[in-house]
Predict the 3D structure of the following.
Amino acid sequence: MKNHTDMLIFHTAICAGASQIATDGRRELDVLVATPSLRSGMGSNMESIKEYLAGYDGPAMNIMEICGSHTEAVARFGIPSLLSDKIKLISGPGCPVCVTTSAYIDRLLTLAKEGNVIATFGDLIRVPGSHDSLSDAKGEGADIRMVYSPLDVVDLAESEPDKSFIFAAVGFETTTPVYALLVEEIIGHGLKNIRLLTALKTMPEVVDEMLAKGAPIDGFLAPGHVSVVTGYDIFKPIAQKYDIPFAVSGFEGEEILIALYEVVRNRGKGVIRNCYPTVVSAEGNIVAKKKTDKYFEKCDAAWRGLGVVSGSGMKLRDEYSIYDAGSDGLDSDTKMNPACSCAMVLTGRMRPYECPLYGKVCNPGNPQGACMVSTEGSCYSYFVNKRRD
């Protein structure tokens, strides 16, 4: 990338669905190709979908959303109030901050105490490690800086060449291509004072892990942003293996309702429904995936609440390991407050309000666990929206 504008354009292309929708007729018959008319101009059809979901009287269904933005949108649009009592929505491990282990935070704290500047997005600053958070460290004099783009750290490193910068690279398949571009920029600028501490996760493996362990889930709202990059085909083996439906959804209220309708009416079937076709294709964003593969490779990864899940992470390739700040082996997850139930919440085994700390000592102003920190966290969403579903 020649400059920051180029990278912004590339990042926007990833999020906007630069990958073209397949037009060669090879789409599989078990994939619903939703056209724009599915959402706009549906008229009575949308009303029929609402009536179907509100009046559903079949077997009880637990449907898990595995995207933090879906968690936020479900609350914002009041989706649970539109559903039958037999349809329950569960917030899964779709918030990158929430699934990050305490060992990762502790490593950042150690790096900060060694005199490195920690650059990170805002949510991560307040996530508890085993004893403290980055916010606590900042209050004690550590140099913790909030950034709005990974490229900001390039500017910081160039303007302060005498300081060593650590970028906290946390996220899923959506942001990993951007971190690949960051590494490319670091190399292109010849910078020696930036390293990444990575906690990068991939979604299919953790979904498989939950189902293999008997999680009570009957269907999934597949993550729209992730699917833009990966394509929806990544969920096909899991759908078929467990005879469970997936529906890729956008983030507007009607888009979510359409996706839920597809999940419910396909209960017990191993199918994928693409209800976000304007930006999601079967194969995903080839350019973004190639960029990721150039700099990163698959690895095992630790998830809060699930432990180490084989093949569910991404790490810098060996040839780029000089840009790594010690990301390997950050597997332990020690609760700062032993009563915190984030692990149970993230895997659908407990509702946020069932945690003994919820609304008492744990709230957005005094989070005891990661799920109460991020706006995409389950506990945060339930608390600020007063959800009891």
User: Anything to note?
Assistant: Residues 4-16 form the longest helix (13 residues). The radius of gyration is 21 Å.
